[in-house]
Amino acid sequence: MRPFELTAPATVGDALGSAGTFLAGGTTLVDLMKLNVLTPRHVLDINGLPLHGIDTADGLRIGALERMADIAAHPGVYPAISRALLLSASQQLRTMASIGGNLMQRTRCTYFRDVTTPCNRRDPGSGCPAISGANRMHAVLGTSDSCVATHPSDVAVALVALGAEIRLAGPDGERTVKLTDFYRTPGGTPEAEHDLRLGELITEVVVPRLDWAGRSTYVKVRDRQSYEFALCSAAVAVDVRDGLVADARVAVGGVATVPWRLPAVEAALRGKPATEESFAEAASIAVEGAKPLAENGFKLSLLPRTVVRALLEVTEESR
Fold it and tell me: In whole angstroms, what is the distance from residue 183 CA to residue 151 CA?
């Protein structure tokens, strides 16, 4: 780790007016600084800023500095979000990590984290060795010739499924961005991972009110049951009336370069019986456009099965 200056701004305005890298829980930033993947000269400890609170009066509003463990335990949080948080990392990390920091975490691609290897996200134009290298954990959706790394966040998948937005504060004022628009697929500029502008800070996560979001869940398939990133995951919410799917929300993780919403699957579910057969037919659409690599072709079958499993889980709970 290289030397750096650490300061603690007293207000949000002070933070936005200071050039530097924001530190909340530090569970991603400190790791990457130790590896010299990130080498900030100035780190701003923002833990003293008034960016806390969970409000469930109309939808869900979460301060960016709320810890993952506290959000998961809150009785008013939608099940898909709570379960996604509980299936993330370890209890120790969930106690430290903030929701804003979780949404900003970087990919776990081993080539990105190894500064002795090329990586277009870390060093634009240097290449993507994962395309022809060790790529079992990598993406099959939203990829490009420049990058095939998956997005690591579990809760981002649940938030995307539920139509969440984030509020941002910056030198030019405040703005609100849909989470689906915030993340960027790599294309030819994989170093541009999101729509956060220079000096901006996430202040709040907002999930619009969805009366049937109480019937939601998050399913995560991984190599082991403790502290492991997803091979595939699915966040779903389903509104079933008289045995038919009136509406649905579906997003997946572990298979794409960003948290991946599946509007075509949602459309295919609407008006159909809430049965395994209907779910399987709709979920088959999920892999359209997928581009498997040498070691991750199994995700083409794992992805629809994970979506069906999540749909069955949430509809069985609502019966």
Answer: 9
